[in-house]
Amino acid sequence: MTLVATRLADTVAGLFGGELPVGLRTWDGGFAGPADAPVVVLRSPLALRHLLWAPGELGLARAYVTGHLDVEGDLADGFRRVWAAGTGGPGLPELARGARALLGLGVAGPRPPIPASEARLRGRLHTRGRDRDAIAHHYDLSNDFYSLILDPSMAYSCAKWAPGDDLASAQRRKLDLVCAKLGLGPGTRHLDVGCGWGSMVLHAAGYGAESVGVTIAAEQQAFVRARGGEVRLQDYRDVSDGPYDAISSIEMGEHVGEENYPVYASALFGLVRPGGRVVVQQMSRGADAPGGGPFIERYIAPDMHMRPVGRTVAMFEDAGFEVLHVEGMREDYAKTVRAWYDTFESRYDEAVALVGEEVARVWRLYLVGGGLAFESGRMSVHQITLGRPS
């Protein structure tokens, strides 16, 4: 009898120019592909059934997070090899051939249960209620879980690295950079939109600024208050106590959505005084990169949207801002995510104890894939400094 790996090899290799970029081992003991590469392990027929019901990235993610598919060896190296050999994704003919091959292996059957960690949001995009649900899916996971991965300041955003820095030093450097661009000092009235766990609010207060943060994540609000920071559980669209001298918004704009981004830009413009400054740190994608994807949208950041940085800058100009400075930090984010990943792997058992094996596997996939997206230039991040004309 021909083993499953052998029967699958030709079909899979056809998606990568005729050769498997990684090894393939199946539940019946079969093996195909190079011996000196990471090995994709199909532990049960359910791995392939996930792919039948959700071909492509989503099916692979479901198989991985549920443990029916695994990778032996360096997961990041496996990603690099697959991306380097990829042809831009299978078309309909390739998907049809793949489906026929899977059906021929006898793995057809009812749809496997959708993993519990997958987001199930309802309602119209970017209403206040749906935005709260989307943020809660990711950020209300557990403060203790995030404290395993992040530095003591709990900054969950790109750091700014210099030679010799550890993660905590690089995060302080980033926060100092934002404070300098905003011109914070004693008595400066400062608002942090999407304040996370309060790293910017508390750091700004160290400059003497009167700093307040807003978040729609209840777990974050409780955490910041426990640290002595001023924070409100409030949507950015509901902030009405301006004008502020300075506003920061660090990696929150990705969650606003394409249609609502002009609303967000106008809200920031209306909340800062004439002559005041705004710093927005935000992820972007390359002009030809898709950004996001089924895995990110279902498991990590539902409803997140990224665009090329030029389009974001144009929206701020349309809102009335003068664009003073744009700083790219892509390489810094690759280092930041790598630091998070190294810490996560060193404390993996603790993470599993807090959130369970399935969610821990989601995060392993997220950190590896995200790091490589910044490393390869598919994604980037920028600090955009804006001024409201006097």
CATH architecture of the largest domain: 3-Layer(aba) Sandwich
Alpha carbon gyration radius: 23 Å
Largest sheet: 7 strands, mixed
Measured between the Cα atoms of the first and last residue, the distance is 79 Å
Assembly annotation: single chain
| CATH-assigned fold name of the largest domain | Rossmann fold
Helix fraction bin: 40-55%
Spans with pLDDT under 50 lasting ≥5 residues? none
Overall geometry comes to elongated
Q: How confident is the prediction overall: mean pLDDT?
A: 90
Assign the structural class, choosing from mainly alpha, mainly beta, alpha/beta, alpha+beta, or little secondary structure: alpha/beta
Side-by-side strand order of the widest sheet: 7-6-5-8-9-11-10
- Kindly give the count of domains: 2
The string of secondary-structure elements, in order, is HEEEHHEHHHHHEHEHEEHEHHEHHHE
